């Protein structure tokens, strides 16, 4: 059915952003309850894609999540379009073909780039008399200036009834437009790595089911291990980041699951992290400048060596430190590593290599399949030690290696150059001489020597970051941050 055939028929719109699901979806509910037929779409916007935080793996996840939605909606002839065009051009086209009455969507706590787009669209809708209703996402409150009552409101939101979406057959329109995905782009998006977590609502629920049925029983015990965490962690972070599951759905499912009684410590640890998930997004919603500026402006005064060769070695997992390189290579290949190893990668970048955190933030954003701006930038800065309110943790990659991968299974999997290295050398392969390598049947030492010295860089980083915490501007900013983001009684 084309727009021309319909003429200037009155319709509504559901504009899907990071809410790629069919249930507990307020925008779909509003459109279904309204009297008009509606068009639902998600967009791959060139102006957003060009932003350096976006990668092809993100677009692939979106593409396959939309395919999953359409499979679910097929029984009611529902269909969510995925178009390659900027929002303003899409709405301009649709407004010529149809009489748009209302637009329903969720608020997006994204970067300044998406925020500017939304402000422009708000003006565009208002000028044309189109009502745009934006629903609150996951207990994140727009326009908040401090945390008075935020935690209480979040719990109220999480415990409110879930939306049980119902879809009327034929109410969601399927139309033809000149900005459908090209065959070339479709081929790129279809080619989805088998080692990435499968995208979409259906798969999100499978991961949640398996976590609560067995996988998550040792969650709190194995969370720091780069190997064990791949199984024991919930692994639902991509589904939360792209809205395949809502925070409320996950919160209520875990909270009310019968296995929680026997595994309360593990399940409660996840529930706590769901709140922290939203806590960081709320911080970013209040100050999205965190993408490019230090949370604590006092740390913008710091200077860094910013050696480009060291940065490239870090990006490609060629630092000479097995755990650092294994984590980076695992991340490049699969799109996921556990939290402790993420923190170690950031610490190594900023504290050991003396790189400004901004040099690596977009690189990891592109690699994380679960990239969520509201979590990524505040967390990146916390691990980089530039908040002025959190403890500066300078990770020792050898210590982490020995504690979290004592047998070296993770290292040998992702750094195959070391697969035949004896255990006594595995965490510090530079200690192995050429003769040692020869005795082990290793014809050459293809793995690089360390690009920095841990003792030297550790002393430098401790002096640099710990002393700067007493700078007057850092202290002033720390007080401001605490005032803004600390719960009030």
UniProtKB/TrEMBL annotation:
Cofactor: FAD; (6R)-5,10-methylene-5,6,7,8-tetrahydrofolate
Signal peptide from the UniProt entry: none
UniProtKB keywords: Chromophore, FAD, Flavoprotein
All residue ranges annotated as the Photolyase/cryptochrome alpha/beta domain in the record: 10-140
Tagged with keyword Membrane: no
Coiled coil: none
Pfam families: DNA_photolyase (PF00875), FAD_binding_7 (PF03441)
Keyword Lipid metabolism: no
Family: Belongs to the DNA photolyase family.
PANTHER family listed in its UniProt record: CRYPTOCHROME, CRYPTOCHROME CIRCADIAN CLOCK 5 ISOFORM X1
Name of the featured protein: Deoxyribodipyrimidine photo-lyase
Species whose genome carries this gene: Algivirga pacifica
């Amino acid at each position: 059915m084309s727009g021309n055939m319909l003429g200037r028929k009155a319709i509504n719109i559901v504009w899907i952003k990071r809410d790629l699901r069919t249930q507990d979806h307020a925008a779909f509910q509003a459109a279904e309850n309204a009297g008009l037929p509606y068009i639902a779409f998600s967009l791959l916007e060139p102006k957003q894609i060009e932003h350096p935080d976006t990668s092809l793996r993100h677009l692939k996840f979106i593409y396959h999540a939309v395919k999953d939605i359409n499979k679910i909606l097929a029984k009611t002839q529902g269909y969510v379009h995925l178009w390659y065009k900027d929002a303003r051009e899409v709405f301009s086209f649709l407004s010529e073909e149809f009489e748009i009455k209302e637009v329903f969507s969720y608020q997006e706590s994204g970067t300044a780039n998406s925020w500017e787009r939304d402000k422009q669209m708000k003006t565009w809708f208002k000028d044309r008399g189109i009502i745009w209703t934006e629903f609150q996402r996951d207990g994140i409150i727009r326009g908040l200036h401090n945390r008075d009552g935020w935690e209480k409101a979040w719990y109220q939101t999480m415990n409110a009834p879930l939306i049980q979406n119902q879809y009327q057959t034929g109410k969601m329109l399927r139309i033809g437009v000149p900005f459908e995905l090209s065959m070339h782009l479709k081929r790129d998006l279809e080619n989805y790595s088998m080692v990435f977590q499968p995208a979409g609502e259906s798969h999100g629920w499978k991961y949640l089911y398996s976590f609560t049925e067995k996988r998550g029983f040792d969650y709190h015990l194995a969370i720091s291990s780069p190997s064990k965490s791949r199984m024991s962690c919930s692994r639902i972070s991509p589904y939360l980041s792209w809205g395949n599951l809502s925070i409320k759905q996950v919160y209520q499912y875990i909270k009310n699951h019968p296995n929680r009684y026997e595994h309360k410590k593990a399940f409660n640890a996840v529930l706590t992290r769901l709140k922290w998930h939203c806590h960081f997004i709320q911080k970013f919603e209040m100050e999205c400048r965190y993408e490019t500026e230090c949370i604590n402006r006092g740390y913008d005064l710091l200077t860094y060596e910013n050696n480009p060769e060291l940065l490239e070695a870090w990006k490609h997992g060629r630092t000479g430190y097995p755990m650092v390189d294994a984590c980076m290579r695992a991340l490049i290949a699969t799109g996921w590593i556990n939290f402790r190893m993420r923190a170690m990668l950031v610490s190594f970048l900023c504290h050991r290599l003396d790189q400004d955190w901004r040099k690596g933030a977009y690189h990891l954003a592109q690699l994380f399949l679960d990239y969520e701006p509201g979590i990524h930038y505040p967390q990146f800065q916390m691990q980089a030690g530039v908040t002025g309110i959190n403890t500066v943790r300078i990770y020792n990659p050898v210590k982490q290696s020995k504690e979290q991968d004592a047998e070296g299974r993770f290292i040998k999997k992702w750094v195959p150059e070391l697969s035949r290295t004896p255990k006594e050398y595995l965490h510090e392969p530079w200690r192995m001489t050429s003769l040692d390598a020869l005795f082990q049947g290793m014809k050459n030492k293809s793995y690089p020597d360390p690009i920095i010295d841990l003792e030297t860089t550790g002393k430098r980083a401790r002096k640099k970051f710990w002393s700067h915490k007493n700078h007057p501007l850092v202290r002033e900013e720390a007080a401001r941050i605490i005032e803004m983001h600390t719960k009030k009684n």
